[in-house]
Design brief:
The chain contains nine helices and eleven strands. It has 270 residues and is of the alpha/beta class. The longest helix has 16 residues.
Length: 270
């Protein structure tokens, strides 16, 4: 794929550009010759079953994993092959279950957001500036979590804690927000609140890269779907062409009927 996937009116250099990216962990190939280009401001979902390689893809984006060198390898973010990890976090925010587990500690919600300025887990000997405090107040208001800011993460529900981790990821106004299996363990009410929050972020101009195995996570603002299985991207295109009975049934190896209602997609019959 080329720069044609970039959103009109935004930077023409892709946010992410991978070609022939292969990653091996131990004796297993977790990513197999991935090729993809994602434009700034684009809203996409990477959909696949557990074990498909979705989390490995995220760890490759964030430079926790590195691809095998080969002559045809392209491994760029914003057109650059080498990035300081801390600099990269200023324009790609990540919210994962691993991060949420790491934050199971006695840190207040406000401190969680402020820690995003330092890429730390909580605050230690960091100097918090008035500008950081002001930005934190903006995020608390935008995410509608101000009343919870003094509560400790150990006292929050999963949904509440996830909203503060999103706030942490937003402190630098990133070009894109990567959400890894964001609705695990959420009940119906919390799921409804969370999905509305992600829609609000997307409408405010932050690109959404949603990584999930659930069709119901895919908000209407997402119009491109990448299907992933066995470490490979096996489909990539407009939502209405990817979310079909045949493609989703094959992806998850189960008979399924995909229904659309008001921009939301659901799977039934399995």
């Amino acid at each position: 794929m080329t720069e044609k996937n970039a959103i009109p009116g935004t930077c023409t250099t892709p946010l992410l550009e991978f070609e022939n990216v292969t990653v091996i962990k131990g004796d297993r190939k977790v990513l197999d010759s991935l090729t993809v280009s994602i434009g700034e401001g684009e809203h996409i979902a990477i959909l696949g079953p557990n074990g498909a390689g979705k989390s490995s893809f995220i760890k490759t984006v964030t430079r926790e994993y590195y691809p095998l060198p080969n002559d045809d390898l392209v491994f760029r973010i914003r057109g650059e092959e080498f990035w300081d990890v801390f600099a990269m976090r200023s324009f790609i925010g990540v919210v994962s279950n691993d991060l949420q587990f790491t934050y199971t500690r006695e840190v207040s919600g406000r401190e969680v957001i402020l820690s995003g300025f330092f890429s730390s887990i909580g605050l230690f000997n960091h100097t918090v500036t008035p500008a950081m405090e002001a930005r934190t107040d903006e995020i608390l208001e935008f995410l509608e979590i101000g009343p919870l800011q003094a509560r400790l993460m150990t006292e929050m529900s999963s949904g509440e804690a996830r909203r503060f981790l999103i706030g942490r990821a937003l402190v630098h106004r990133p070009a894109a927000l990567i959400l890894d299996e964001p609705t695990n363990s959420l009940d119906l009410h919390t799921l409804h609140t969370f999905r509305n929050l992600v829609r609000k972020i997307a409408k405010a101009g932050t690109g959404i890269i949603l990584v999930t195995h659930n069709l119901h996570d895919i908000i209407p603002e997402i119009d491109r779907i990448i299907l992933m299985k066995d470490g490979k991207f096996v489909g990539d295109g407009p939502k209405e062409k990817m979310l079909t009975d045949r493609k989703i049934g094959g992806l998850f190896t189960v008979p399924v009927h995909v229904q659309e209602e008001g921009g939301w997609y659901y799977a039934t019959g399995y």
